[in-house]
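Q: Sequence in, structure out?
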Amino acid sequence: MAEIKITTAAFEKEVLESDIPVLLDFWAQWCGPCRMLSPIISEIADEYDGRIKVGKINVDEEPVLANMFNISAIPMVAVIKNGKMTASDVGYKSKEQIEELLRHG
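A: Exactly. Output:
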């Protein structure tokens, strides 16, 4: 499954009520490290299809969600399980680092 665009309107249904863990990628078009991370996020979405949901949140388009997560730097990835954030990290990460976050989050 490809990543899904998460909006404020769909946040509760797609993230909080998800029956599988959710990996959120907070990003912006102007952010170089975000663009470098994007192919890794896509690869994880494909490889973990059915086991995790991968959502992308554009912080410029969704300021309410950015504020909800106290985003002060991007890219930021967060793991949500059972409606609660269990792990997060800021900055460019390798695929292995994100997979480690998923395992321990």
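The domain at 4-104 is CATH 3.40.30.10 (Glutaredoxin).
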